[in-house]
Amino acid sequence: MSQPDPRKGTHYQLSGTGFFILVGSQRSGTNFFREVMNTNPDVAVHGEVLWPYPLPNVYHNFVRTMVSRAMPPISPADGMALVDDYFVHVVDDTRRGHPQKAEHLAMVGIDIKYNQLSFISPLTRDLGKGPFLLDYLGDRNVPVVHMVRRNLAKQALSLTIAEARNVYHNYAGDEFEGKVEVSIDRLMGFCNWIQNQRELFRKMSANLSVLEVTYEDVADSCRAPGADGDISAHSCMKEIADFLQITLNFDNPTTIKKVINKPYKEILSNFKQVVSALKNSAFAEFAGTLE
After folding, report:
1. What global pTM score does this model have?
2. How far apart are CA 131 and CA 129, in angstroms?
3. Taking the CB of residue 144, how many other CB atoms lie within 10 A of it?
4. Domain 18-290, CATH
5. Half-sphere exposure in the Cβ direction for 17 (13 Å, CA)
6. Per-residue DSSP letters for 69-88?
7. Inter-residue contact 22 to 240 (CB < 8 Å)
8. Tell me: the pLDDT tens digits for 78-111?
9. Residue 72 preceded by cis peptide, ω within 30
10. Who contacts 78 (Cβ-Cβ below 8 Å, separation ≥6)?
11. DSSP one-letter code for 245
12. Distance between CA 249 and CA 238 in Å, rounded?
């Protein structure tokens, strides 16, 4: 007789450390959110671990160590066990990489984009069932922070400009130099893509434990920190701490700066064309926010 899985239906923890998933689309503010969360002494959040970076905590490198397991997993049970083991690996790696947090590490998070959710899937998975990882999160009752931007046009512009410049993050505080001409077709395509992916994820995750957080609220919390840099008083941060059951202890991150740090009209050579295109689209409500 098979034994019941003790982790099913519970937010199962690893030596007192829980984990959560941060989900969003590209340029939704997940990187900034990670930097904010990592100011909490009891929390560590990792970047896109399903992207094949040359780091020990990424899934790509973890599965390369598998010598006694069928890869990719064959059945849903195999997939569940694989992801369980991967999280053990991530938590252990976090404790090694953050010794100052190891003793009181309450929560570890990982960043997964919408278009990465189907990366881990058993071979026997039915095509119409959607991403296996969502089944895993529901089965293990793992909390999900869904990161969105209210201003969909600015997110799409961030994607388009980053693609044109090949500059995605700003850790050195560099000033935006020069001008960029963005493709209107590309911009509108990103607007539609972001909106469609967001709504699809909301539908697919309806039965999960999800807190939707907006980039704008997190950014607002950092604009007027206390004298010591503390941003915990903002209602957004209180809601996040309550949801993840962690201490309310966040500071204004100094590790990352805005990539787009000048007005759009100064950096877009076709600024008027961009505004006009938005005004004549389904996203007209955002056109005035670019001025």
Report:
1. 0.91
2. 7
3. 21
4. 3.40.50
5. 24
6. S-SS--SHHHHHHHHHHHHH
7. no
8. 999 999 999 999 999 999 999 999 888 999 999 9
9. yes
10. 69, 70, 122
11. T
12. 9
Cα–Cα dist 24/57, whole Å: 20
List, as one string, the DSSP characters of 188-235: HHHHHHHHHHHHHHHHHTTTS-EEEEEHHHHHHHHHS--TTSB-TTSH
- Scan for tokens 């995605």, then name that residue: 168
Q: Could you give the CA distance from residue 265 to residue 274 in angstroms, rounded to a whole number?
A: 10
For 127-145, the pLDDT digits (tens) are 889 999 999 999 999 999 9
For the cut 60, the answer to whether the pLDDT of residue 171 exceeds it is: yes
* Cα gap 86→62, rounded to integer Å: 7
At 108 the three-state DSSP class reads: strand
DSSP 8-state secondary structure symbol assigned to residue 5: P
Q: DSSP secondary-structure letter at 175? A: P
Radius of gyration from C-alpha coordinates of the chain: 20
Structure tokens at 236: 């957004």
Q: Note the Cα 261 to chain centre separation in Å.
A: 22
Record the tokens describing residue 157, joined without a space.
């512009």
> What digits encode the pLDDT tens for the residues 40-83?
999 999 999 999 888 889 999 999 988 888 888 999 999 999 99
- Here the tokens at position 93 are 């790696």
Which residues, other chains included, contact 76 with Cβ-Cβ below 8 Å and sequence gap of 6+?
122, 124, 125, 132, 135
CA atoms 130, 145, 7, 82: torsion sign = positive
**To which H or E segment does residue 47 belong?**
strand 43-48
